[in-house]
Amino acid sequence: MISACLGMLGAVEAKPLNVLMIAVDDMRPELGCYGASHVKSPNIDRLANSGVVFERAYCQQAICGPTRASLLTGLRPDSSGVHGNHTHYRDKHPDIVTLPQYFKNNGYFTAACGKINHGVFPKGSAPKWDVMGDPQSWSVPAFRPGPRYYYTEEGIKSAQGTFKKMFPKRPISDWGKYLVFGLLTESPEVDDDVLYDGQVAKRAEKYLNDFGKTKDKPFFLAVGFIKPHSPYIAPKKYFDLYEPEKIALAENQERPENAPRFAGQGSHEKRRYTDQPNRGPFSTENQQRTKQAYYACISYIDAQIGRVLDSLEKNGLAENTVVILWSDHGYHLGEKGMWGKTTNYELDTRVAMICRTPGMKAAGKNSQALVELVDVYPSLASLTGLPVPKHCEGSSIAPLLNAPDKDWKHAAFSQFSRGTRMGYAMRTDRYRYVEWLDKKNENTVVARELYDHQNDPHETKNIADDPKQKEVVKKLSKDLDQGKGWKNAQR
Questions:
Q1: Which residues form the Sulfatase N-terminal domain (predicted)?
Q2: Across 388-407, average pLDDT
Q3: Which among 65, 75, 455, 461 could bridge 118 via Cys, Cβ 3.0 to 4.6 Å?
Q4: Taking Cα atoms as reference points, which of 117, 175, 116 lies closest to residue 146?
């Protein structure tokens, strides 16, 4: 595998390849390069034109902490022990060698800008950014700007009101030091660099300028953007790209027929903001404004990604750098009546993933292969000529960069818990199959879901109990193997 991957690199194989890893928070694959012409993403599309777009890439768990833990450790959630945002993978595996740490141990200069790890804070503590990330992973301390969100008078007032309720004894001047939620959307008339992600792009540019001057050591640069995670805040010029009254509402706003109620979620992530209803439906105007803001944040992020890619090229580094872009999970924007993530459905588990490497034969192509975020660790190792660590539970996607239509793994695996239940999901070429197991007795299946993407691509009807599907369910249940079926699905 490694020799084959190196063969694609041709003349540049003698020089160690650099790595630029771009992470985007909460971005579903609704981009120009994924066929969504209404979303303006010219810079991501530019990367897609020189790389491979993975149309069917999936996360391991549709929430920030666990999905990033899987990507960074190479372990699936049940192996990493991370099933929520209050657990760090070091709590379970103090000596695990992470993806960037592996490159650091092999002579790379590793650096991080923005959100790569998920900020961890113990339950009951004040929610603050984990500024250092994972110190073992980086050659220098990770750069992560502060948590301030709001910049308009109305936005600041809303955040300060929340802060007073959360911390009545603390001075109001401290509001910008904590994660407090006021308005859901805001469009301040400010320059890009005033906001968090502009600062991240600026720091990434500085790193690339420095790398371009020295070029004496290979680098692994991780650049993490927090938008389009809520609150949806971006400079006004990006909001102006979209007319809310022309934005189509989500189709199929009803929960899937015959699905267990607990499989969905109540849009709590959206409802926690001060200008949103605590219960009941969202108005047409509310939905259109929310989608406008979400798309504006994508366009804002796209501009920052363009800055980073331009800097890579300007400094003469593009021809010797593997570039991979991924989003940590998908998102619902009103589909199934839900806003946010945290389910096992297609829209929450499907992610954006684009990869480009020097000498690849399939530049500008799309791949329908089933791939996963847990594949990123072994992929970057093999693409740069490093042995894939034995603990990795994914597969290298390197062969797909030459042959995107190559026969590949037969399923992708995700999971999400609901109280005492753990839902294990398997996405095959045709089906999405989910088993909900009682955590106290993992042999007890308390509910099943089956969606036929050939006939029901929006997952509107659970057909697991249809007698006609008995043999299909039997086979898929065997392949899922209570969440352990990934072992037999690898390439």
A1: 18-385
A2: 97
A3: 65
A4: 175
Three-state SS for the chain is CHHHHHHCCHHHCCCCCEEEEEEECCCCCCCHHHCCCCCCCHHHHHHHHCCEEEEEEECCCCCHHHHHHHHHHCCCHHHHCCCCCCCCHHHHCCCCCCHHHHHHHCCCEEEEEECCCCCCCCCCCCCCCCCCCCHHHCCCCCECCCCCCCCCHHHHHHHHHHHHHHCCCCCHHHHHHCCCCCCCEECCCCCHHHCHHHHHHHHHHHHHHHHHHHCCCCEEEEEEECCCCCCEECCHHHHCCCCHHHCCCCCCCCCCECCCHHHCCCCHHHHCCCCCCCCCCCCHHHHHHHHHHHHHHHHHHHHHHHHHHHHHHHCCCHHHEEEEEEECCCCEECHHHCEECCCCCHHHHEECEEEECCCCCCCCEEEEEEEEHHHHHHHHHHHCCCCCCCCCCCCCCHHHHCCCCCCCCCCEEEEEEECCEEEEEEECCCEEEEEEEECCEEEEEEEEEEEECCCCCCCCECCCCCHHHHHHHHHHHHHHHHHCHHHHCCC
State if pTM tops 0.70.
Answer: yes
Instruction: Please report the pLDDT score of residue 491 as a whole number.
Output: 67
User: Predicted confidence band at 15 (pLDDT cuts at 50, 70, 90)?
Assistant: confident
C-alpha span between 207 and 308 (Å, rounded): 10
- pLDDT tens digit sequence for 444-465: 999 999 999 999 999 999 999 9
State the catalytic residues.
64, 118
Distances (CA, A) of 13 to 134, 380, 400, 453: 31, 15, 19, 41
pLDDT digits (tens, 9 = 90+) for 167-209: 999 999 888 887 788 999 999 999 999 999 999 999 999 999 9
What are the pLDDT digits (tens) for 259-307?
999 999 999 999 999 999 999 999 999 999 999 999 999 999 999 999 9
Dump pLDDT digits (tens) for 226-266.
Answer: 999 999 999 999 999 999 999 999 999 999 999 999 999 99
What domains can be seen in the chain, in order of their start residue? 2-408 (3.40.720.10), 410-491 (3.30.1120.10)
User: What are residue 433's DSSP bridge partners?
Assistant: 426, 450
